[in-house]
Each structure stands twice: as structure tokens, then as C-alpha cells.
Amino acid sequence: MNFLRLTILVFLSTGDSVTFTTSLKPAAEPFLALTWSFNATTNVITSTSVDVVGQGYKNRITLDKSTGSLVLRNLTERDSGEYELIIIPQSAEQILGTTKLMVQTKVSRPTIVWPTGNLIEGKSSVNLTCDADGFVATRVWMKDGIPLVSGDRFSFYDGNRVLSISPVNRTDTGEFLCNVSNDFSFDTAKCRLKVFYGPDRPKITQIPATAQLEDSVTLICSADSLPKAKFSWKFRNMMMNGPLHYIHEMEMRHLGRYTCTARNDITGLKASAVHVLRGN
User: Fold this and answer.
1) What average pLDDT does the segment 174-195 reach?
2) 152 phi and psi, to 5 degrees?
3) What is the CATH number of domain 203-277?
4) Per residue in 11-50, pLDDT tens?
5) Which CB contacts under 8 angstroms, 24+ apart, belong to 171-175?
6) Choosing a second label site near 179 at 20 to 30 A (CA), which of 123, 155, 248, 272?
7) In the prediction, which pLDDT does 2 show?
8) What topology is assigned to 2-104 in CATH?
9) In the Cβ-directed half-sphere of 271, how many Cα atoms lie within 13 Å?
10) What is the pLDDT of residue 145?
């Protein structure tokens, strides 16, 4: 038995055509028989005095009976596998050749699904799910252009299809990307997360830093928070709202401990700081 060299073609897209080319020169006389089979069980075409085309191959194949080369059109992923050619010449040994074909579907544009509820720093967890049609060989998650790796608060499941963040942190606010690819196609989906946090401990600034009686004084309260914090002041039995407390002309009755409280209505948290106003 003679073994025939066939051209091996791999990683074609669905809908394409492939030509299995043999190394034979055109025969001077017709072969007695020629058979192409798929995965050793399915007849593609058997050519003797008549041609018998296997189910699913009608109008999809073209056979060169002088060399045994075969064209297969309208490829699908189901065409992936091993193809075998057997040729029985008029007056020579039987010829055998095999080749393999891999057909893949281009990845579609992926989509990312994530919960729509408020994400609270240190309390909430979130799963981002990246789906795409077609053959996906790799999924890579990125945050602000930097690839994410498993560990700390990040975990990956289902072949990187799901990115789990537990718990979320304020640094997770920003753009997440899911890149999907196979050997000949690539696409990306994006989503933006917003993580609510704070308020952090307030900071109180006095302007001017030192003041005399009868001077004007402004106390400014600030705190990192998303959304922006709401502020209130307490001085003795008085309550004032807003981040600024302005004293037009400082008197003895204005001196003492001022407490600023910052609150975040979404996180439900609040934090306070104390400032002692003195007259020099």
C-alpha cells in the first residue's frame, strides 16, 4: 500500500471552503475506485463507474477524479475531524492518505452582564459575566487597561467567563474589559462599575489658621465620599448644615468645640471630627 501526502489545513472559518490537495499527478487512465471518508465512518464520496455522495455533502463537494483532490464548501464546525482518501488504481497498489481539518466559528461581539444594584465598598460583591457566540479559546479580563489575575479579591469561574469581585473596593470604580478570542478572531466588551464608599473621617480646616477676637473665621469640613457627603455642624446646643461654618466677627461666645459630621445616604455611614476654635 502506498501512502499519499495530503495538504493539512486547519482553523478555517464557518462558511469557508477548503481544498484537500493530493501530491498525485493527473492519472493517464481513470482510477478503478476512489473514496473519501470522514472520521472513518461517514462516506463523503465514493467514485467508481458512478458517484455515490454521502448525506450532507451534495452540492458541497467537487472531486478531481484525475488526482483525488477534493473541494469541500460551506464549512461548519461539524466538518472538523479526520478525512481519509483511498484510491485503487488500474494496475498499481492501493493508495491511502489522511488529513485533519479544524473549523472554528469567529467569536461574536461579547456582552457583559452585571447586577444593577448599588455596590457598597467592603459590603457588596459582584459577578461580571462575559458571553459570546462562536468558539471562544480565551477570555481575558482587564481593568483600566491592565489584565486582572486571580487572588486577593478577584476570582474567575467557568473558563474565565465569570469574574467575581468580593468584596468591592473604591478602586474598582472604572472600566472593565472582557477580551474574547480564538486563533483568527478577537473582540471586546466593556462595562463601567461605580462603587459607593465613605464618608472617610472628615478633615476640618480653619481659615485663617489663627484668628483674633473680632476677626472673621471660616471652618471648612471635607471628607472623601461617593456620592458626596452631606455635612452638619454641632456647637453646644446649636446645629448647622453644610460644609462651611462662617463667623462674621468672632466673639468669646464663639470659642469652643465644633463637631462636623459627614454622612453618606447610600452607604448609610457617617463619620465625625472635632475642631477647637480658639481666639489668640
Assistant:
1) 93
2) 55, -110
3) 2.60.40.10
4) 566 778 899 998 888 888 889 999 999 999 999 999 998 9
5) 172/119, 172/143, 173/226, 174/143, 174/144, 175/143, 175/144
6) 123
7) 63
8) Immunoglobulin-like (2.60.40)
9) 16
10) 86
- Angle CA(227)–CA(231)–CA(233) in degrees, nearest 5? 170
59-118 pLDDT, tens digit each: 999 999 999 999 999 998 899 999 999 999 987 789 999 999 988 778 888 999 999 899
User: Could you confirm whether domain 111-196 is CATH 2.130.10.10?
Assistant: no
Categorize the per-residue pLDDT at 7 as very low, low, confident or very high, splitting at 50, 70 and 90.
low
> 209-214: long-range contacts (C-beta < 8 A, 24 or more apart)?
210/280, 211/250, 211/279, 211/280, 212/250, 212/279, 212/280, 213/250, 213/251, 213/252, 213/279, 214/249, 214/250, 214/251
- Rounded-to-integer distance, Cα 253 and Cα 240, Å: 16
Distance CA 92, CA 33 (A): 12
User: In whole angstroms, what separates CA 253 from the centre of its chain?
Assistant: 61
CA-only gyration radius of the chain, Å: 37
Closest CA to 178 of 231, 268, 229, 109: 109
CA atoms within 13 Å, Cβ hemisphere of 11: 7
DSSP string of 177-209, one letter each residue: EEEEEETTEEEEEEEEE-EEB-PPPPEEEEESS
Please, where in the chain does CATH 2.60.40.10 lie?
2-104, 111-196, 203-277
Rounded to 5 degrees, φ, ψ at 172 are -80, -10
pLDDT, residue 252, reads 93
Residue in the structure block whose three cell numbers are 470522514: 38
